[in-house]
Amino acid sequence: MGDVLVVIGVGGMGQVIARRQGPGKTVVLADFNEATMHAVADQLTADGHTVAAHVVDVSSRESVRQLVRTAAAFGDITQLVHTAGLSPTQASVERVLAVDLAGVAYVLDEFGDAIADGGAGVVIASMAGHMWPPLPPEHEQALATAPADDLLGLPFLGQIADSGSAYGISKRANHLRVAAASVAWGRRGARINSISPGVISTPMGQQELASDSGAMMRAMVDSSGTGRLGTPDDIATAAAFLLSPDSSFITGVDVLVDGGVVAALRSGQLKLPTG
User: Fold this and answer.
1) Kind of pairing, strands 191-197 and 2-8?
2) Is 5 helix (H, G, I), strand (E, B) or coil?
């Protein structure tokens, strides 16, 4: 029995974070895609990590709860990294909301009841949450604090017409949900934060770049302060800080790791199409 790191979503970012944070811990990898999960688990095991694999559907509270039970059997859950999500090109409005909105809420609830004293968690959100137009205060309050099981029934979510809007609102909700959850996590002596990546060169990111919105995304990157795509290592570095004792006074916030895209937008140096 010892420290346990749980990584939900083992694609580009999740895999790199697991490798960086894994030494000295039992790494519990969780993903909906069983083949991908086992391939990553086999590679990490071959490299000397102690790894367990568990299939999870984050859109099901019971599935997340079972993941918590599995992880807790290996020891104290000291670190949680939640990267699982669907992009607008991958799924319907309903599925994006189920995974990116409700799924995050279930993970925050269930792991918030199990995280060890001194533990820390990171939720991977998106810069889209910073770019979404302001929501009415009552909508933001509902997204932040409504019971997780009631989230998908919020009336205003039924008015979402496209997956892009579902994604943007879900990522804004991730920021709000993490902020609200930080109080409950704090009562256990633990911290929870989110990271909002920009355009990252992962399989999902490359799929987005190849989509109809790819030209706009490349224009955003070109207009940013760094002028480059992000890498999974950029996100892993930010996650390592937020999971470490060096950030012991940081909780309930979102860290924007986007190469300066949102800064360029807010300063007026980047103009997005309105039509």
Assistant:
1) unpaired
2) strand
Span of 34-48, 153-167, 226-240, 258-272 with lowest mean pLDDT: 258-272
Q: Please compute, for residue 71, the number of CA atoms within 13 A of its CA located in the half-sphere on the CB side.
A: 32
**Residue 225 falls within a domain, yes or no?**
yes
Q: How many domains does the chain have?
A: 1
Please check whether residue 274 is in contact with residue 215, taking contact to mean a CB–CB distance below 8 angstroms.
Answer: no
**166-170, 201-205, 220-224: which is most confident:** 166-170
pLDDT value, residue 274: 54
Helices 163-187, 103-112: inter-axial angle, 10-degree rounding: 10
pTM: 0.94
Residue 6 near residue 122 (C-beta atoms within 8 A): no
144: number of Cβ within 10 Å: 15
116, part of any domain = yes
User: What's the mean pLDDT in 222-228?
Assistant: 87
Q: Which residues are catalytically annotated? A: 167, 171
Strands 120-124, 26-31: pairing kind: unpaired
- Give me the CATH number covering residue 42: 3.40.50.720
Instruction: Specify which residues 194 forms β-bridges with.
Output: 123, 254
What residue type is 18 in one-letter code?
Answer: A
113 confidence band (pLDDT: 50, 70, 90): very high
Q: What's the pLDDT score for residue 275?
A: 46
pLDDT band at 259 (very low <50, low <70, confident <90, very high): very high
